Amino acid sequence: MNIAWVFTQAMFLYRLVNRMAEKNNYINYSCHFTAFREGEQFVLHHSLSMVISGEMELDDGTERKVFRKGDVYLARKNQLLKFIKKPTEVEEFKSLSMRFDEELLKQVSAQEGFHLEEKLKTPAFIDLSEAQHLRYFMESLLQYQELLENKAPELLELKQREALMLLFVHRKDLRKVLFDFSDPHKINLEEFMQKNYHFNVRLERFAYLTGRSLATFKRDFQKIFQTSPRSWLQQRRLQEAYSLITQKRQRPNDIYLDLGFEDLSHFSFAFRKQFGQSPSELLKA
Question: Is the pTM higher than 0.85?
Fold first, then answer.
């Protein structure tokens, strides 16, 4: 038996199995929370989402919006987003999301003969709540939960294609968003960092989003800010914390996550080291 042929077939099967496993992750029924939850994320894939119950607040650093029961939105890939998931007094928070993999989007784009002539500038998320047919579509997915999660990757692709068709019926210009396969272009580094310093993501993410390799990002950063990215990020976040506490009298435990600190103890330690007193002591002064 030809060893090379066996190896090729084995690799094909490995990729196929992994692709089918990945498909199971392209629809998420499992966002159920009975308690307030907040966080942030780097959006890797375009996704269509609907709030089933409770509220979802999204903030991309420029625009902030609250989505409620029945609201539908599209989150764009390669974006930074802060989120707050809020249950109500009588209902837990639930949401439903469908992600679109780039391979499928490229297939659909090629079938339509689409050519991107100009990019469409939009926020990191797009409110689609006025399109009732999208809400009806998302609600219909609840009837297929068992199949879509576990047994029918072919059905999932059909539903993804159906979702794309419904999106484009509502807004033709969304093709310029979903069929944009280019990497982020090189942008103004100082302007970007001043806008997004409060996002707690790896330097590699900041580099990618500004259209740079990590090495180029660090080099350009040093030229502009005269210090390293990690040092500048901590100083910038602490400066903002000082302003919020002294001028707006905000409590430390209400602001440390929004400013990009992972935990309150680290924030308090860094703050005391920088200003000579803890955030709580400053608030009482």
Answer: no
